[in-house]
Amino acid sequence: MDSLQQYSILILLLPLLGAVLAGALGPRLLKGATHWVVILAVGGAAYCAYQLFEVYTHLAVHTHEPVQLVIYDWIGMGGPTSWLTVNFRIDPLALVMLLTVTFIATWIVVYARDYMRHHHHPERGYERFFAFLGLFVFSMCALVLGGNFLLLYLGWEAVGLCSYLLIGFYYDKPAAAAAAMKAFLVNRIGDFGFGLGILLIYLKCGSLDYDYVLSSAGITALGDWAPGIALLLFCGAVGKSAQLPLYVWLPDAMEGPTPVSALIHAATMVTAGVYMVARCGAIFVTSEAVMTFVAAIGGITALFAATMALVQYDMKRILAYSTISQLGFMFLGLGVYAADAAVFHLMTHAFFKALLFLGAGSVMHAMGGIIDVREFGGLRKVLPWTCYTFVIGSLALAGFPMLSGFFSKDLILHQALEVQPLLGWLAVITAGLTAFYTFRMVLLAFWGPKRLPFGVHVHESGPWIIVPLLVLAIGAAGAGYYFHEKLPEFLVDMMTPFDVAFEHLPPGAVVHGLSHEEVGLLSGVVAIAGIAVAVLGYWIRPDWSRRWREESGWLYILVHNKYYVDEILATVLVRPLQQAAAVGSAVDRYLVDGLVWLVAAGPRLVGFILHRYQRGAMQGYGVMMAGGLAVIIFLVFIFARVLAAAN
Amino acid sequence: MGAMLLSLMIVFPLAGAILLWVLPAGRTSGRVALVWSLLGLILVGLVAKEALSGDQLARGGFVLESKLPWLSGATGSSIASRVEISYHLGIDGISLWLIVLAGLLSPLVIAASFTAIQERVREYYTLLLLLQSGMLGVFCALDLLLFYVFFEFTLIPLFLLIGIWGSKDKRRAAYKFFIYTVAGSVLTFAGILYYAYYAHAHGGLPMLTFDLPMLYQAAGSIPAGVQWWLFIALAAGFAIKVPLFPFHTWLPLAHTEAPTAGSVLLAGVLLKLGTYGFLRLSLPLLPLASVALAPTMAVLAIIGIIYGAMVAWAQQDMKKLVAYSSVSHLGFCILGMFSLKMAGVSGSVLYMINHGLSTGALFLMVGMIYERYHTRQMGQVGGLARTMPWLAFFFIFFTLSSIGLPGLNGFVGEFLVLLGTALSAGTQDDLAAGPLGFSYAVFAASGILLGAIYMLWLCRAVLFGPLRQPDHTPDTSRGLTTDLTRREITILVPLAIACLWVGVYPKSLQQSINQSVASNILHHQQTQAAAMGNVISPGDRQVVWQTVHGYSAVEAGDQP
Amino acid sequence: MAELSNYILVGALLFGLGVIGFLTRRNLIVVFLCTELMFQGVVVNLVAFARYWGNLQGQAFALFLLVIAAVEAGLALALVVVLYRRRGTLDSEAWNSMRG
Prior knowledge:
The structure holds three protein chains of three kinds.
Chain A: H1 3-30, H2 34-59, E1 67-76, E2 83-90, H3 92-118, H4 126-145, H5 149-167, H6 174-205, H7 210-213, H8 216-222, H9 225-240, H10 249-252, H11 258-267, H12 272-279, H13 281-284, H14 288-310, H15 315-335, H16 339-366, H17 384-398, H18 404-419, H19 421-446, H20 463-483, H21 486-490, H22 492-503, H23 516-540, H24 542-551, H25 554-560, H26 565-610, H27 618-646
Antiparallel strand pairs in A: 1-2
Helix pairs in contact in A: 1-2, 1-4, 2-3, 2-4, 3-4, 3-11, 3-16, 3-20, 4-5, 5-6, 5-11, 6-9, 9-12, 11-15, 11-16, 14-15, 14-19, 15-16, 15-18, 15-19, 16-17, 16-18, 16-20, 17-19, 17-20, 18-19, 18-20, 18-23, 19-23, 23-24
Chain B: H1 2-22, H2 28-52, E1 63-69, E2 83-84, E3 86-91, H3 93-112, H4 121-140, H5 144-153, H6 155-165, H7 170-201, E4 208-209, H8 212-218, H9 224-241, H10 250-257, H11 260-285, H12 287-292, H13 294-313, H14 318-337, H15 342-373, H16 384-387, H17 389-402, H18 409-423, H19 438-463, H20 486-504, H21 507-531, H22 538-549
Parallel strand pairs in B: 2-4
Antiparallel strand pairs in B: 1-3
Chain C: H1 4-24, H2 28-53, H3 57-87
């Protein structure tokens, strides 16, 4: 076994082992020390991911060719290519994802040690939580390491499961249980399309390995079906990455513990859709319309979610909508052939959004579980570490120049303005809104007069929480500058199909408007303007924001109620389905079973007529026997007569 | 030894039943039955080991065969001299795993009944052992009449189990179950008789034989019109047993009223008699009709998948919900089978086993809840995850297995069934185009979504939310504890391991399954061609054989 | 030597008496005796025909029947005793649980 194989297997096995140990030994043996198992396991996976990266880059310094590792035969499909294997594909995209996931996960697990211990559900489920985290890291790594579509689907569903388990972590809260179910089911709606896409791929290609399907031979085999398949796959991405119209699960998913929100619903799992589209670029670029569709969904979702974030008061929910919005940016990037920018944004977003969620968790931790910004304010003085790391994350999210979000967003905006100018300008507006709502939240929570919820003893969190915040803050600040040239270079292989398709766009499809520098300037100005408006409205002249709210009237109500999307979905989708189920149940009881009853009614009628002759008295039967015999003899005589007469 | 092994395996539980009557009645009956049943499981293991050793299965026929004359006419009168009914046993890769499933579930349900069954204990375990015998026998029988005898034999113990140890409406459930299934299977019986007669009179068989391998050879010579009627006759019994929509209404009632062990064996093994019957009899014996009627069967199966799921969602009774989920799941089995492609049929066989494992486990757990709370209503219990973490763990585990989470068993079968269905219309595998197609797969795939809805609904109602339980519960008499006892955990663990194993490494099963499925499909292709007047040349045969086999380098001449 | 018809007539008479008794009497023991009477009517027939044809098959069969009847009588009377113990009466009307 070469070292690539060893490391890639270890990346999967360590978190799984950690999860199993935490789950099996946690409640009895490890108890309060359970976190060590998982911290070591996930940290070990991160180390292995780094080693894998080292080995890989030394293997293929010049080529960046993907390496395919076959582990074992999995499912027999019948036919000549009979075994679908469990295989890994190690290439730059997978490595970027692996490093991001394991690195961020490590710090989140560290953070969870203190957070879960002192949180408002003391003791209970501590071990369970860490077991789930380990399971999640395993699933996510399987998702990005897998070398065929079925493993992708495996990881895809497995992270969905972890999300289900973790959202429903406080299972005796009805809201949490409902949110968990909603998350799983909404994802399954997307997976329905995703699964059909995978079936079609096999139907057309006779294989599910990336190596073949994404090669030119595979794309040729897909033929005219490629755009349709791309759309079906995109269904899955829409569900998993919370895009319109399937985004509804993500805000509710904030019922889970905060580290979960950070890890799953911001930094890693929700970006699986982005990863998948980037991975399957060769299929998506076969049709310009599909790419436009992806870009449009992304662009519109970004704006839509950003408007909803404007008026929320729950810090975690603001961040959730912001996540949806940022994922929209990533899809916009993919749709305008800037996949490297999208993956770059995925990475920087992972840093700053994890940081923001953990910061919000730290606030929640200090406030005794309260997270509504109307309940507190001016926390700058009491939670200095949390505050300043949170500000760094916010600046990165807002796209403040030279912080990580700036670089990646800038790349996306630039290309969007060229390929889809309309969506590009929408995205610029969204960037402004992003800066505004982010700082609205920061200012409400940390600036202004100090307000605390009644009876809360405020304290800054301990090192287990502060250190991850600091590490992620460094990432959020520096990752953009550090990687903004290296990453696109590293991902050049992944970009090939996108670049080729971009080159072949019909003349006129690409507008050469603004140069790179100009877009940078524009987005910087927009970000600062958004921040400035927020500062004006929520710090310098708080009465202004009140006036804005009052003057916007019905618009405010509409947005505040999240455009009533949940209500609309409930009315047009959930309730009819439920009613159909009830009707089905009645049909089964009365119609289907009624038919059976009807069939049985024939014999029952005969029995009803005859039963009175079964009197149960022995002599009665004797009489009937004798009578019957007589009748038979009589008939035989008649018959004989008739026969004789006929002859 | 090999030849006797199957008979020994079948008779062994029967001997146990007799032993129970010899020993004094009382509390020990359960333990004796458990030990005996475990010994039976060891025998099953021996059978599996024997069957899988060497490359016997790769030849595509039956292994561990034994054949004794049973009712061969020797008296000299005209027809009877040419009748051959034999005690013919043998298994292949398909029946092997169903036998393993039956052998595994039997000791588990016996162990699961220790606290639940408090009266007529000895009779109860006797019937369970009898049922075990019958279940093992039906999968081994290679003679149509023997098959039918075992097929019907399984009814009697289950009828009594439901009727005596069931809950409130047990009588009605038992009668409905019995009469409904018998009403169907008498038609099957008529079909079997007519098939043997026709194969003898017009199919060129030298005698009136019920021997399955011999009848397979005559399958090509039966005209389509006759096949059509015979298919309907056979399907009458099998479709009710499966149960295929709209013949399913006995199932929820029987499941709800049966004692836990009855529900588990009914769902786990007995429903598979129907699908197994289709696979073992209808498909190879009636190749033309099974192609012609495949779309009908598939449509019924898909209606079953969607309808079963919807109705399951509307249930308030946990057991009923799981019962309707069986209707939905078995639809997948039928669908995959009638795709007539390797992936579909292989997936269908896997699905049978998977359904036995996960639904069996779910019934076991509903039983465990019932024992403690004396209710099956979802509205009356809730939030059990708090007081019963072990139950919650297993419940979620098997729920996930049931809704096809990749990495667990359900997914493999579901995926292969859908794949086979989608592939069916094509000829990528160089075989004749099958009767189904991608559009069927689209509708069936909605089962993936609907299945998740009702199962998670159940989980949420029972496990999550604030704790809710009827007064004076949980009942912790009879050695029960609030959470699962060690005995109950020990029952669920083997099932969980099996689920995980099938999900992670299905190859261990599929290797042998696919070999038999391949020979089945090859046979189907051949008889289909023969019936349409084309003769497959030995060269073509070789091609087809290698195509379906793919991985196996066995010569074409070795298969049946 | 008497005519065959005489024997058959006796047999038929015995059988007829048996039938009438079986249908009209209520006492289980009498009812049982009547069935025996019918039996004997048949046996008379068998023996008569054996004589008529001049072979022994009918007589052998008659002997066989007598043994069976004896065994059956033992069994049936035992049953009657059991039934009597259960209900304290020999009235056949008391046993009608097979009533539809």
